[in-house]
């Protein structure tokens, strides 16, 4: 018998059916991400409701804003003329007129290029610290930058910052000269002592002499004319830059086995971290003078910076201590095994690794410090948030403006701090070496 | 200065002691040597002290700084304005950071004695008042029992308020606020029934409202607030200079010397007192260690007292304060400059 | 012929202080100590000389003088006739109050936000990210001002509750009024109040002490009852019926105390300019509390997120393998382990919150800085003394917080090696 019928063999595949509507595209996404459980449904609805409520209450007011007006009353008139009686809106004209004060304070307007240049150069200077892809040689610029930035911001003779930088050179030379004669320890003492003597006694006269020979000077700007965001940047950036070395020393002191050094470091760190920054700023403005020789007088920004440096140093010390603690014990043991002494081990093995781990923490400390610069208003400096705002509101034109300056300043702070915190997250991800 | 600033930073601020102004030298010499007057002003008070869009300070208190700078240095622009807060103003003065405090500061016994500062005169006679909404139906401060009251902190206001309500056996809730802007915002939203501060401040605040006609300033003035410039205790020569600069401005108004006719009067005036004041006769300038034309410079800086008043807080400005107690004694006010002789 | 031996030199050479590792650390410590002491001596000497020049000394007697100003929120009895020391105490208590409330609320909000940021719900996770970033990156001072101003603008004035057709009305059966000055809520009034007990500088509210004693006593009695029941159950296999005993133990004493004190509830009513009766929680406290909470919670959320991420994924996989649901996995497996990573940075957030409460002055909340470091300082002009005292008090608070938390931290730490 012969089979007459061919066995059924599928020759072409059926096109796969489209997944049910609930398992595809936007619906699936919504089902999984928005409405996966009753609780999630409630949360989603509440969340969307809150956003809609906020936007519907704030957006019209902001959009009705007026950009062209000379005073608050003019703003009010324009809005009433446009939208009818009793309608309110933002008066952005204030920002349009006073933005230079928010950014530069009372810095002479023809010299605005200097803080701008200083800011750009600052970015160039910190770039090699922040991104490894850049050539290491650029670090030299980062070392020179503090003097350059100082000169650009405050002006005056170029020789003052140059001679101040020369102090480090003096220290280096002193160390090199002393080392063959008296050994490493005395050389490092000389390296510290020589620059201090240089700064105290020689730098001033030499700078004056050079200035009379080759005068190169920028117009001087006084600290009192600083305000707004340059003040925030000057205090914040100087605070972090100068607190880093101090913070590293304190961290090492806290890790040290030497009883007195350890206890002094702990005492200092805990004291600074235990009191609010406001009280330290008040100390700078009211009390520092009591603790300096009678008749000493130097300006308030410098005094504030000193206190901010001490404040930030305590926080940096804790961050660096965290970095030191995160290093595997083996690194220390390996350094010992190589026969490196304490300083060499720190410089070549420990610190490069510990500081690298600490960079996210240092960036967060900087963000915190940058935000805290708004507190200098309590000692009469013109910070962007309240100092400048109060001064602006004291003019008869803008008296009575409330929300607009806060929104403007808040937005700028957000942009700056947010980009820094994003950088810090990028770094954390990059430094994360575990595989999970 | 820059040099000491920067070196100071590097040398850990130590040891730079003796260089700066040594205690004991006279403020006049220090100011002259520096070529600038350090003048403490308010961080921002409408009409009294505020920077404009270009950062130039203007206002009633600022005019005193300018006049003193003009009298001492011959140039009204040689002033460094140092904004001071209510907490740090006296420390700034006693520690020598400012030479002169011209910041709507009330002259009181304890400040004059215990805090070791000297008030040299009064440039504005003020008093603490109350502002309320019209629709509250209150016409006297005596009806404020149980009210919530906004006060600016750090001033004598809190103590006056406590004393006044205690004396009248009334209760109140205080809402202390840091700055005038916050106070206005609270008051306008109805978070306090009344707003209290110096009457001049109330007038200025009310003037900036969208609806000033709906607010009234109650008739009661509950305190005396003689506001005046002050100097460090112990340097009487410097105190004399500031005191007589202020008096010169007041006297100038009395004798009709204005910034426009002063040059003409210098040569033509036959009034011996005017001649002495303007330095064309007598040696008043020498007696306080200044140039003979010190008072002329001071008056030229911003005009006489009346001109300054009219330009900064007077009735033609948005603040619109009447002279009231601050009129000349000949007009029924309290301004009375001692004779220049 | 004498044998020349290379004897070790017995003498002590000066160079050994630097080159001999045995002595070097001592040398360094002594040098550091001398430098620090010289520095301190220099500062103190300057201070004394400056005070001499100014003709004043360090004098804390101003604390005993009449303060003369009123404070709007007083947890202990205070009038303007009280002393500056008393005003300082009032300020300190206000600081502690807002710091305590803030720490508790910030922990709750922070943990919730941190967990929700890892949620699968897209809207919630995004919203929490926005919340955390917005609050972390804008200065706290601005948040305090904004939140306070929102309270002021959004809520009705007490006046709006007046009249036939009031613009605003009280909620919860006419007992609670939200106004732009305060929230008026009903409160307990003790007719037979026991008043205050004064023990030198310490003042105790006897009513409060009685209530706290009753609650604590009730809790301990309850635990004793449950322990006894468990013991009986373990011994005999039968659990005694105890359901009424804990209820009695917990609520009995407190009810007795309330009856003894003659307690009744006082509801707020509108009278004159303001609500009277009940308890008025001022908006400055609420706004400051909220601002500190939201700001600190944003940081805590990040700490919690980092802590949860730090727990190895194997842990949650193991928990799922055991059949635990996601919620229980989180609460029983992940969070307890994450806690070890979370606690140390959490301590510094508590410290930050406490220190940040010194910004209270921006909303007129009279904390320590507002009384001692504010009005008292301004009125007496004793800047040096007031600031030193202020810093000392804050330091002590901080040390107490970090000390307590460190003890707790040590107790939950993994015991290794």
Mean pLDDT of chain B: 85
Extended strand count of chain C: 9
Strand residue content of chain B: 15-25%
- Structural Rg of chain B: 22 Å
Q: Count of helices of chain B?
A: 14
Q: Specify the CATH class of the largest domain in chain B.
A: Alpha Beta
Largest interface: A-B, 65 and 60 residues
The CATH class of the largest domain in chain C, by name, is: Mainly Alpha
- Annotated CATH topology of the largest domain in chain C: MetI-like fold
User: What class do helices, strands and sheet pairing of chain B give?
Assistant: alpha/beta
Radius of gyration computed on alpha carbons of chain C: 30 Å
Structural topology:
The complex is a heterotrimer of chains A (436), B (341) and C (417).
Chain A: H1 25-33, H2 38-63, H3 72-83, H4 93-104, H5 113-130, H6 139-154, E1 156-157, H7 159-182, H8 184-213, E2 217-218, H9 228-255, H10 259-274, H11 277-287, H12 300-326, H13 329-337, H14 342-372, H15 384-393, H16 403-431
Antiparallel strand pairs in A: 1-2
Helix pairs in contact in A: 4-9, 4-15, 5-6, 6-7, 7-8, 9-10, 9-12, 9-14, 9-15, 10-12, 11-12, 12-14, 14-16, 15-16
Chain B: H1 2-10, H2 27-34, E1 37-42, E2 50-51, E3 57-58, H3 60-73, E4 79-84, H4 89-94, E5 100-101, H5 109-113, E6 117-119, E7 124-126, E8 128-133, E9 147-152, H6 157-167, E10 172-177, H7 180-188, E11 194-198, H8 199-207, E12 215-217, E13 225-227, E14 230-232, H9 236-254, H10 262-268, H11 272-278, H12 284-287, H13 294-302, H14 305-312
Parallel strand pairs in B: 1-4, 1-5, 9-10, 9-11
Antiparallel strand pairs in B: 2-3, 6-14, 7-13, 8-11, 8-12
Chain C: H1 16-19, H2 21-54, H3 84-117, H4 122-136, H5 140-154, E1 177-178, E2 182-185, E3 187-190, E4 196-199, E5 202-205, H6 206-236, H7 244-260, E6 263-266, E7 269-271, E8 274-276, E9 279-282, H8 283-310, H9 313-321, H10 326-356, H11 368-380, H12 383-412
Antiparallel strand pairs in C: 1-2, 2-9, 3-6, 4-5, 7-8
What do these coordinates show?
The complex is a heterotrimer of chains A (436), B (341) and C (417). With 436 residues, chain A is mainly α. Helices cover 71% and strands 1% of the residues of chain A. Chain A has three domains: 23-62, no CATH class; 95-107 and 223-431, MetI-like fold; 157-218, no CATH class. Chain A has 16 helices and two strands. Chain A has a two-stranded antiparallel ribbon with strand order 1-2. The radius of gyration of chain A is 30 Å and the shape is globular. The relative contact order of chain A is 0.08. Chain B is an alpha/beta fold. Chain B has two domains: 33-125 and 227-260 and 296-331, D-Maltodextrin-Binding Protein, domain 2 (3-Layer(aba) Sandwich), CATH 3.40.190.10; 128-223, D-Maltodextrin-Binding Protein, domain 2 (3-Layer(aba) Sandwich). Helices cover 37% and strands 16% of the residues of chain B. Chain B is built from 14 helices and 14 strands. In chain B, the strands form five sheets. A five-stranded mixed sheet of chain B has the order 10-9-11-8-12. In chain B, helix 3 (60-73) packs across helix 9 (236-254). The longest helix of chain B has 19 residues, at 236-254. In chain B, 55% of the residues are buried. By secondary structure, chain C is mainly alpha-helical. Chain C folds into two domains: 58-155 and 281-417, MetI-like fold, CATH 1.10.3720; 203-263. Chain C is 63% helix and 8% strand. Chain C has helices spanning 16-19, 21-54, 84-117, 122-136, 140-154, 206-236, 244-260, 283-310, 313-321, 326-356, 368-380, 383-412, and strands at 177-178, 182-185, 187-190, 196-199, 202-205, 263-266, 269-271, 274-276, 279-282. In chain C, strand 7 (269-271) and strand 8 (274-276) form a beta hairpin. In chain C, helix 11 (368-380) runs antiparallel to helix 12. The relative contact order of chain C is 0.13. The chains are: A mainly alpha (436), B alpha/beta (341), C mainly alpha (417). Chain B binds chain C through residues 23, 86-88, 90-91, 94, 110-111, 114-116, 136, 144-148, 153-155, 158-159, 161-163, 166, 172-178, 182, 185-186, 189-193, and chain C through 53-56, 68-72, 80, 145, 149, 152-153, 156-157, 159-160, 180-181, 271-274, 276, 283-284, 361-362, 364, 366, 370, 374-375, 377-379, 381, 383.
């Amino acid at each position: 018998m012969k089979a007459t019928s061919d066995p059924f063999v599928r020759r072409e595949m059926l096109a796969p059916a489209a997944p049910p509507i609930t398992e595809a595209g936007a619906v699936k996404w919504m089902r999984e991400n928005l409405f996966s459980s009753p609780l999630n449904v409630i949360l989603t609805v509440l969340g969307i409701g809150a956003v809609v409520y906020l936007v519907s209450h704030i957006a019209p007011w902001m959009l009705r804003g007026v950009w062209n007006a000379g005073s608050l009353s003019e703003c009010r008139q324009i809005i009433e003329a446009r939208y009818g009686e009793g309608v309110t809106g933002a008066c952005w004209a204030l920002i349009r007129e006073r933005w230079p004060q928010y950014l530069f304070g009372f810095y002479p307007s023809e010299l605005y290029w200097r803080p701008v240049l200083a800011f750009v150069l600052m970015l160039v200077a910190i770039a090699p610290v922040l991104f490894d892809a850049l050539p290491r040689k650029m670090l030299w610029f980062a070392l020179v930058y503090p003097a350059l930035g100082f000169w650009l911001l405050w002006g005056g003779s170029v020789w003052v910052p140059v001679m101040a930088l020369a102090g480090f050179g003096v220290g280096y030379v002193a160390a090199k000269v002393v080392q063959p004669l008296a050994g490493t320890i005395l050389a490092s003492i000389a390296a510290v002592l020589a620059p201090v003597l240089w700064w105290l006694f020689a730098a001033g006269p030499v700078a004056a002499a050079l200035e009379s020979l080759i005068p190169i000077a920028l117009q001087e700007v006084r600290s009192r004319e600083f305000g707004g965001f340059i003040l925030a940047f000057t205090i914040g950036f100087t605070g972090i830059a100068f607190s880093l070395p101090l913070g590293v020393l304190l961290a090492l002191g806290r890790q040290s086995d030497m009883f007195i050094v350890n206890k002094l470091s702990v005492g200092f760190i805990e004291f600074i971290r235990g009191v609010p920054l406001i009280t330290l700023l008040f100390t700078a403005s009211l009390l520092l003078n009591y603790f300096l020789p009678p008749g000493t007088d130097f300006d308030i920004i410098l005094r504030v910076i000193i206190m901010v440096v001490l404040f930030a140093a305590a926080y940096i010390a804790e961050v660096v201590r965290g970095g030191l603690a995160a290093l595997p014990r083996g690194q220390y043991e390996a350094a010992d095994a190589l026969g490196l002494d304490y300083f060499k081990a720190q410089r070549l093995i420990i610190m490069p690794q510990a500081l690298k781990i600490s960079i996210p923490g240092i960036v967060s400390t900087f963000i915190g410090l940058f935000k805290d610069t708004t507190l200098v208003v309590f000692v009469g400096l013109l910070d962007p948030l309240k100092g400048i705002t109060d001064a602006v509101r004291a003019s008869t034109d803008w008296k009575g403006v409330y929300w607009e300056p806060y929104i403007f300043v808040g937005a700028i702070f957000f942009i700056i701090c947010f980009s820094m915190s994003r950088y810090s997250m990028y770094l954390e991800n990059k430094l994360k070496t575990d595989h999970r | 200065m820059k040099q000491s600033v920067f070196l100071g930073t590097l040398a850990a601020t130590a040891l730079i002691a003796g260089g700066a102004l040594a205690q004991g030298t006279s403020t006049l010499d220090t100011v002259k040597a520096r070529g600038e007057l350090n003048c403490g002003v308010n961080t921002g008070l409408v009409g009294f002290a505020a920077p404009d869009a270009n950062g130039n300070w203007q206002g009633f208190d600022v005019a005193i700084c300018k006049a003193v700078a003009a009298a001492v240095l011959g140039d009204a622009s040689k002033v460094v304005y140092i904004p001071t807060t209510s907490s740090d103003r006296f420390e700034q003065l006693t520690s020598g950071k400012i030479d002169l405090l011209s910041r709507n500061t009330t002259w009181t016994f304890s400040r004059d004695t215990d805090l070791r500062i000297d008030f040299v005169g009064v440039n504005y006679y003020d008093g603490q008042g109350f502002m309320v909404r019209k629709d509250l139906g209150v016409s006297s401060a005596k009806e404020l029992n149980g009210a919530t009251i906004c006060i600016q902190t750090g001033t004598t206001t809190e103590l006056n308020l406590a004393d006044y309500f205690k004396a009248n056996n009334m209760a109140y809730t205080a809402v202390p606020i840091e700055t005038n802007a916050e106070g206005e915002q609270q008051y306008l939203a109805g978070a306090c029934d009344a707003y209290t501060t110096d009457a001049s401040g109330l007038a200025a605040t009310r003037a900036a409202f969208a609806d000033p006609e709906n607010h009234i300033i109650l008739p009661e003035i509950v305190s005396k607030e003689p506001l005046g410039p002050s100097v460090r205790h112990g340097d009487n020569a410097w105190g004399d200079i500031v005191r007589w600069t202020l008096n010169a401005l007041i006297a100038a108004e009395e004798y009709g010397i204005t910034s426009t006719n002063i040059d003409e009067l210098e040569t033509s005036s036959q009034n011996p007192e005017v001649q002495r004041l303007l330095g064309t006769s007598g040696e008043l300038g020498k007696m306080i260690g200044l140039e003979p034309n010190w008072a002329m410079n001071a008056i030229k800086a911003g005009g006489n007292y009346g001109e300054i008043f009219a330009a900064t807080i007077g009735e033609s400005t948005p603040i619109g304060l009447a002279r009231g107690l601050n009129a000349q004694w000949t007009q029924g006010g309290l301004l009375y400059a001692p004779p220049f002789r | 012929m004498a044998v020349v031996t290379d004897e070790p030199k017995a003498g002590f050479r000066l160079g050994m202080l630097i080159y001999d590792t045995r002595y070097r650390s001592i040398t360094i410590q002594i040098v550091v100590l001398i430098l620090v002491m010289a520095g301190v001596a220099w500062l103190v000497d300057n201070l004394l000389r400056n005070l001499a020049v100014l003709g004043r000394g360090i004098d804390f007697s101003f604390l005993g003088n009449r303060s003369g100003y009123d404070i709007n929120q007083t947890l202990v009895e205070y009038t303007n006739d009280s002393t500056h020391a008393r005003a300082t105490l009032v300020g300190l208590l206000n600081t502690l109050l807002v710091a305590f409330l803030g720490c508790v609320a910030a922990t709750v909000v922070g943990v919730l936000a941190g967990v929700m940021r890892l949620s699968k719900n897209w809207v919630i996770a995004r919203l929490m990210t926005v919340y955390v970033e917005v609050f972390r990156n804008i200065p706290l001072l601005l948040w305090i001002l904004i939140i306070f101003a929102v309270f002021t603008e959004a809520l009705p004035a007490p006046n709006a509750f007046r009249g036939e057709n009031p613009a605003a009305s009280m909620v919860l059966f006419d007992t609670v009024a939200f106004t732009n000055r305060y929230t008026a809520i009903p409160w307990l009034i003790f007719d037979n109040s026991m008043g205050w007990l004064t023990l030198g500088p310490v003042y105790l509210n006897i009513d409060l002490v009685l209530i706290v004693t009753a609650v604590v006593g009730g809790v301990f009695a309850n635990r004793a009852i449950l322990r006894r029941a468990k013991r009986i159950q373990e011994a005999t296999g039968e659990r005694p019926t105890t359901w009424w005993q804990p209820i009695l133990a917990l609520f009995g004493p407190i009810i007795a105390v309330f009856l003894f004190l003659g307690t009744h509830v006082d509801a707020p009513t509108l009278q004159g300019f303001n609500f009277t009766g009940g308890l008025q929680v001022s908006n400055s406290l609420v706004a400051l509390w909220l601002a500190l909470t939201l700001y600190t919670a944003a940081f805590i959320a990040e700490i919690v997120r980092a802590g949860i991420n730090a727990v190895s994924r194997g842990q949650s996989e193991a928990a799922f393998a055991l059949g635990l649901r996601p919620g229980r996995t989180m609460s029983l497996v992940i969070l307890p382990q994450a806690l070890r990573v979370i606690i140390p940075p959490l301590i510094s957030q508590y410290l930050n919150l406490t220190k940040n409460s010194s910004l209270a002055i921006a909303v007129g909340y009279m904390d320590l800085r507002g009384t001692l470091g504010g009005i008292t300082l301004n009125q007496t002009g004793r800047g040096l003394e007031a600031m030193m005292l202020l810093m000392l008090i804050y330091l002590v608070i901080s040390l107490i917080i970090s000390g307590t938390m460190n003890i707790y931290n040590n107790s939950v730490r993994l015991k290794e090696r």
